[in-house]
Amino acid sequence: MPTEACLDLLPRARHIVEEFYRLGVDVGTSGLSGKFHIGAISTALTGLLPGTIRQLAEVAPKLVLQIKPGTSNSLFADLGERRIDAAIIVLPPYALPRSYNSELLRVEPLVLLSNNARGRTAREKLMRNPYICYDSQSWGGLKAFQYLKDRKIHIEPFYELDALEAIEKLVLQGMGVSLVPRWTGLDLDRPGLDVEIIRNQRYSRKVVLVTPRNSAHRPVIEALQRALKTSDATQ
């Protein structure tokens, strides 16, 4: 149990730590130079980030982006440990601490992917074909898990993985059906791919940009937010 004297020192200690990190920020007069570490889930790496990087290169040519791929929960942990400065992740299934800001980037409805599957309705396709499960332990995968639970559909996964692009390929190869978010890059008109959109927003995946509320990189974060909005608008 911390002593009263120790608790009294905590605000001052936090201030010292913040100042230490501010000293380590290498920025120019515009605040748009130096290194900026950003984490991103796989679908953001291939969907949102390419256009965003091009936008940032135009307004901040001296800014060096260091990009780290990962899962939502691992990247959020990295953000908490200050290993990265921002993260593009799935909104957690719990309220974010007040020490973070989040900006909604995309709302991705749940969809059922299939290819010449047995059955006509979504329930029939899920019950009568091998089920490829989007990792139920991932924050995005929890949406599919909740959909099945709410509809009392009890099925054992044939595969379970946290890689949406790989799931799409397995479905196209006729290996089964899957419930996944409609991520950036999913081609709804692709030959052989049947896509049924689940309209209930309860099961939609929300992709957000999460940053520390008291970040020393505020000019970079604001430029990143603008670039992300422009990039998504052109998708």
Short description:
This protein has 235 residues and is of the alpha/beta class.
Report on the architecture of this protein:
The protein is α/β, with parallel strands linked by helices. The protein folds into two domains: 4-107 and 206-233, D-Maltodextrin-Binding Protein, domain 2 (3-Layer(aba) Sandwich), CATH 3.40.190; 110-203, 3-Layer(aba) Sandwich (D-Maltodextrin-Binding Protein, domain 2), CATH 3.40.190. It has eight helices and ten strands. It has helices at residues 4-23, 42-46, 49-59, 72-80, 122-128, 141-150, 164-172, 218-233, and strands at residues 34-40, 63-69, 86-90, 100-108, 110-114, 131-134, 157-161, 178-181, 194-197, 205-212. The strands form three sheets. Strands 2-1-3-10-4 form a five-stranded mixed beta sheet, sandwiched between helices. It has a three-stranded antiparallel beta sheet with strand order 8-5-9. It has a two-stranded parallel ribbon with strand order 6-7. Helix 3 (49-59) packs across helix 8. The longest helix has 20 residues, at 4-23. It is elongated. It starts with a helix and ends with a helix.
